[in-house]
Design a protein that fits this description.
By secondary structure, this protein is an alpha+beta fold. It has two domains: 89 residues, NE0471 N-terminal domain-like, CATH 3.30.2020; 270 residues, Clavaminate synthase-like (Double-stranded beta-helix, 4-Layer Sandwich), CATH 3.60.130.10. Helices cover 25% and strands 29% of the residues. The strands form six sheets. Strands 7-8-18-11-20-9 form a six-stranded mixed sheet. A four-stranded antiparallel sheet has the order 10-19-12-17. A three-stranded antiparallel sheet has the order 1-2-3. The longest helix has 18 residues. The chain is globular and about 80 Å long. Bound molecules: fe (ii) ion (FE2). The site of fe (ii) ion has 4 residues, from loops.
């Protein structure tokens, strides 16, 4: 609990020196905009009830007083009174706290091929459903590492939708609520054949891209067909370290992705490496099959291809990959904006049957926060 050491103010700014010697300098308009009173915020959900245009142009701090652990600010010219809890001010002060982005690379634990020698992060499906602590731990692993394995998932068609219900909502697409991955004659999509598939992220042709993917193994009696996962944020970090110009080319130039069949023509644009306002990686798009015609200015095109090739080469490095065989009853849940997946080729003999589905990251993060509140 932080105490105030000293307090001063002028018309447009309040200055607080905290007991730990840190300092907050809070502008009048920010304070008024962040007023926590019931006239400014819905007391039930905390949503703001005022528009920025409701705040007087000539707003000024008139008086500031401290009562117990509440700071009372009175504003001119309208006499509006705001009360701020000191802990709230300390936690939300924009001088003391940088913007946090729980999707960005700095909030993650980046990994490479040797990071899981003690075993992959794995939870029992029964515990995941029945024990909030287990569900919290598994979802935290997805947030930190980008993927988790569940075992003992009943081998029933559509069961993966029940898994999604535990933390979020199904993202239904033109493939339906879930899709089948198995050998098919006359395939329209390479994922349905017995060829290997290179590292990719699914569906960059959607807007927004599905943030989560689930793959549930119902049957696996073929030789081969191992799954490969790779941390794309680590690959992007390596690219930035090896050649920052290459990194910049892929984060600053947008490309198109497209998927077409008899029922759909899906198109979306975005960078292969998406960064936030702090230049931190937050999202990747990488799919050799669905990247569309590249249309970049000629001078950029000449520089783009070496950068694209460099990133693809990093993604092919085996020391960055983990390889495992998904067994019947196992399900993998992974962040489709970060974790690239691939599949080794498998023999024509035997049967390999997976079901896949999509969900969104916001639902997972929401469940994670609620489970954390309750723990
Ligand atoms: Fe895929």
């Amino acid at each position: 609990m932080n105490q105030v050491k000293s307090l001063s103010y002028k018309a447009d700014e309040l200055a607080i020196v905290w007991e730990d010697t840190s300092e907050s300098r809070l502008q009048a308009i920010w304070l008024r905009d962040h007023c926590q009173m019931p006239s400014s915020r819905n007391p039930d959900n905390g949503q703001r009830l005022l528009n920025i245009t409701d705040i007087p142009q000539d707003l000024a701090i008139e008086t500031v007083t401290l009562e117990d652990r509440r700071l009372i600010v009175r504003f001119a010219p309208d006499g509006h009174r705001s009360e701020f809890d000191l802990d709230w001010l300390y936690d939300n002060c924009y001088c003391l706290n940088r913007q946090s982005d729980d999707r960005s690379e700095v909030s993650k634990i980046l990994w490479s091929g040797t990071s899981f020698e003690q075993g992959l992060p794995r939870y029992s499906y029964t515990n995941f459903c029945e024990q909030p602590k287990s569900r919290l731990a598994a979802l935290q692993v997805v947030s930190d590492y980008g993927f988790v394995l569940l075992d003992g998932v009943p081998r029933k068609p559509g069961q993966l939708l029940k898994v999604i219900e535990q933390f979020g909502y199904v993202r239904e697409t033109n493939y339906g609520p879930f899709f089948e991955v198995r050998t098919r004659v006359d395939p329209s999509n390479l994922a349905y054949t017995n060829l290997g598939l290179g590292c990719h992220l699914d569906n960059p042709y959607r807007d927004p891209v599905p943030g989560l993917q689930l793959l549930h193994c119902l049957e696996s009696s073929t030789e081969g067909g191992e799954s490969i996962l790779q941390d794309g944020f680590m690959a992007a970090k390596i690219l930035r370290e090896e050649d920052s110009d290459h990194f910049g080319l892929l984060s600053q130039n947008w490309v198109s992705f497209r998927f077409r069949d008899s029922n759909a023509d899906l198109q979306a644009r975005g960078p292969l490496i998406e960064v936030n306002d702090l230049d931190e990686v937050i999202k990747l798009r990488f799919n050799n099959r669905s990247i569309d015609t590249l249309r970049l200015p000629p001078a950029v095109m000449r520089r783009f291809y070496p950068a694209y090739r460099h990133f693809a080469e990093i993604l092919e490095r085996e020391q960055q990959q983990i390889v495992f065989k998904l067994q019947p009853g196992e399900l993998i849940l992974f962040d489709n904006t970060r974790i690239l997946h691939a599949r080794k080729a498998y023999s024509a003999g035997g049967t390999r049957h997976l079901q896949g589905a999509y969900s969104d990251l916001d639902g997972l993060y929401s469940s994670l926060r609620k489970l954390n509140e309750g723990s």
